[in-house]
Each structure stands twice: as structure tokens, then as C-alpha cells.
Amino acid sequence: KYGFAANWDYIVKKTFVYEGTPLFNQYKLDGVLVKNDMGMPDFRFLDDAVGTLYQFVSSALKDGDENGRNGVFRQICHGTSTNFVYAACLRSLLGQAGNANGRETVMDYERNMSQIRKGLSGHTANWFSELIRLARQGWTDGDAREITETHLSEDAIKEALIGFRYQNQKLKSAARGQKWPQYCADIASRIY
User: Fold this and answer.
1) Which end of the chain is more exposed for a tag (fewer CB within 10 A), N or C?
2) HEC string of the chain?
3) Which of 142, 147, 115, 114 is nearest to 129 (CA)?
4) Average pLDDT, the chain
5) Closest Cα partner for 160 from 80, 87, 81, 86?
6) Distance of alpha carbon 152 from the chain centroid
7) Where does the chain show beta strands of DSSP type E?
8) Which burial class, exposed, middle or buried, applies to 87 when counting CB atoms under 10 A from its CB (0-12, 13-18, 19+)?
9) Are 165 and 87 in contact (CB under 8 A)?
10) What digits encode the pLDDT tens for the residues 6-49?
């Protein structure tokens, strides 16, 4: 409800297989059971295109440093989730305290953050759609990277992060500049 998720693996899911479970036994019967890099039970996808798609998407989201796609994406995902919870608390508390200006400031923050999040969600949805189309047509790593740069470029993600940070600073400044109750100012200071 409040954002993407804290980690790439909440966006790209793959079932875990545990020895002794009905799923383990079924995968063993199906002949798709393998061991992962750590020697734990895992499975291979029956459709190689799906396996390739999974590998590409997961590596595109998890690889890289703090300033790369992963670092920025993780900051946005985690920050969005946390900050929307803080904002909802602030809106409620300021309303209860009768601080209409403060409540309106928080509602403005939520609207602006939602717009930024919708834009990034749109980029991500288009990226997935194009990658799925490519996987169905026949996979090439070069085409996948081109699609990634087109729909989920590091610049677009960084631009969203700059927008988030600007809105966060704007809200913190409002908390300091307006006469908010101390407990509300404390909550606002936790937004990052």
C-alpha cells in the first residue's frame, strides 16, 4: 500500500524449496529440483525463457553499488514504505491537535510523493512488460539491457530519488518552520 518494498527480492519472487515438503517432493518428481550456489534445494524453470527472465530481472535490480540502479532503487523502495507510514501518522496526529496547516502540508507531501511513486511504478511496469515480450520472442541479453535503459534507466530512478529527497526536506523544513507539537516534529525528523 505505501510503496514498493524494501528489497529487490520482494519485487522478483521465486519460491523457496525446503526438503521434506510436498513442494520438494513434487519438484523432485517433476525433475526440476537442483541445488543452488549454497547447496540448498532449489529448482529450475521448465521454460528456459522464464528462467532467463528471472535471472536478468533479479540481477538488474540487485547488482550494482549505492549509486547504481540497485542502490537507488533500494533507497526509494525502503524510504517510500517507511515515509508513507510516518506521513499517515503525522496527518492523523496533526488533525487531532487541530493543526490544519500542518495537516495540509503532510497531505501535500503525500500527494507529491504518490505522483513520483506512480511515475516510477509506470516505468517498472513498462520494463516488465517489454522484458516479458522479449522473453516470448527469443531472448538476447543486449536487447534486455537496451529495454532496461529505455524503461528503467538509472537516470530516471535517480530523478525519482531526487524528487523523494526534495519532498522529504520540504516536509522536515515545514515541521521546523510551523508550530507543530514536539511529538509531530520528532516523527517528521525520522523521514529520510
Assistant:
1) N
2) CCCCCCCHHHCCCCCCCCCCCHHHHHHHHHCCEEECCCCCEEECCCCHHHHHHHHHHHHHHHCCCCCCHHHHHHHHHHHHHHHHHHHHHHHHHHHHCCCHHHHHHHHHHHHHHHHHHHHHHHHHHHHHHHHHHHHHHCCCHHHHHHHHHHHCCHHHHHHHHHHHHHHHHHHHHHHHHCCCCHHHHHHHHCCC
3) 147
4) 80
5) 80
6) 12
7) 33-35, 41-43
8) buried
9) no
10) 444 555 667 788 889 998 999 899 999 888 888 888 888 888 77
Q: Give me the amino acid identity at 56.
A: F
User: Three-state DSSP class for 191?
Assistant: coil
Grid coordinates belonging to 45? 524453470
- Whether the model pTM is above 0.90: no
Task: Convert the pLDDT of each residue in 107-162 to its tens digit.
Answer: 999 999 888 888 887 888 888 888 888 888 877 777 888 888 888 777 887 788 88
- Coil/strand/helix, residue 33: strand
- Can you read off the three cell numbers belonging to residue 46? 521448465
What is the DSSP-derived secondary structure letter of residue 32? -
